[in-house]
Amino acid sequence: MNAQVFKTEALSRLAKKLPAAVPVMVKVDIDQVVKVVKVVSGEVYIISRDTKHKYEKPFHVWFMHKSGFILRTANGVLGYNSLFMAEVDMNRTIRLKGQSTVKAI
Fold this sequence. Notes:
105 residues, alpha+beta, plasmid
């Protein structure tokens, strides 16, 4: 799954549930998707890499709610220097929320 597919899925979910939020979510800028994880509740987590150097740290964990809202700080951290730490914190966040993964895409 690439960033555009992820964003399109989020926008289609929002268009059904909350059309007024679509213009805001269009501005979400996800660069390069490294890993996608779905959880049993229907929420989706992704780890992206910032190849455009827009942010200080290159790896970010994004969270797509069932409604389609996308949040860059899925766990309150604004970025990671390594993919390993992003994965560790993402998995920790999923466990703390009482979720389990369906599959990694």
